Amino acid sequence: MDPLICLEQGSNGAHSSYVSRANHIPKSIATACGSFEPFLLGFYICVIGWLWLWTPQGVGEQVVQPLFLKFVGSQSSGSNKDEMRGPDDVRKRKDIFISHKKIARWQAKPVHKVHKFLRQTPQEPPEEIIQQRLQNQTNPSQWKTNVVLVPAVYDEWAKYGVPYWARLKDYQLFLYQRKNPQKKNYAYNFGYEAGIYLRFIVDHYYDLPVHTAFVHARPQQHNRRWLEWLKCIRPELNYSILNNQYVKYRPLHSVGQADKEQCWRDMLSVGGHPLPPKLEPAVGFYCCNQFVISKRQLLRHSLETYERLLRMMGAPPDVCHEGPFDKDALYMNTTETTESPGPASSKMAGSTFEHLQHVVMGGHPMLMPETPSTSTCRNFLPDHECNGSPCRTAEGKKKTRGCWQGKVFLCK
């Protein structure tokens, strides 16, 4: 029997961290390993194999066969509970990441079975309205850089320190605090990062930066190269996600109940893309709610639209939907009639914005397709002109050959 068989077997560990997995190994494997004891190589193989059996394994974590194939799964991009954003806590969902791309456990429906509304692009406002809103912008602007960073910070920087990118002179930083209403730049603590993003847009609607990057307090947990992407954006960029974890298909029933569906419907209605009655919402999107957007793209909507969204996702009375549910329109059956305020509503509002901002803010269909390289290169400079760009080219590959040492980029 080949000694590699001793390492190629796996099992599903559904027990506590230090429970032995020896009970799940067939007796034939133990016998095979024992047959190699007279030989030094067989001895080492068996020792390594049995040590592996006693390594900690989390509840529900899957051991992939063979052992040397390692998938990044069962863990979120962040280790801090404050960094979890709505339904994308993949420690609960057990989604799998393969090559930094997220593949949901549920399978996407065939294209011909997906309702056509889910593939429709939201209607653009007339060009003259956008031009009028651009003319109403303050001139000169208060912003010193073309790109302004707006991180959603609560107390993460107090725990981990102020990140180096917050001190860069390449980007102007605008910070809100969520603890003292009497102090400057206060944003009500509701809706997770959605409350911060919408607060900034409402406060600066008539003096928006050329580009605004909305990110988490620790954005590197979702994309360690987000800052390199940001420095490579094209001047004509309108909207782009700053994450690379793509969810191809996520129906509403997998992430929530009737109160969440009502919140989804409300956001789509306010954003000018109302969902037909009795249609189950479903999205394809890039997770984790970090994106860069232009002034022109933000001005697709009126100030009143953003104020309504802010009342839903970043202001009292701490509910996304006020009043009774519209049961005639809901896809899901429910015995509840209203939404209850509290932490669950705050999380629901934040996750709703995360799942639908590509529709309302970015102007994409609900089933947003995975970004092809051609689209990426429309938003970002090619990597042979700007190191670290997601727009990969053959010239860039030649230029950066030999520049990487592990995760460190050595070339300038």
UniProtKB/TrEMBL annotation:
PANTHER family: EXPRESSED PROTEIN, PTHR37490:SF2. This is Uncharacterized protein.
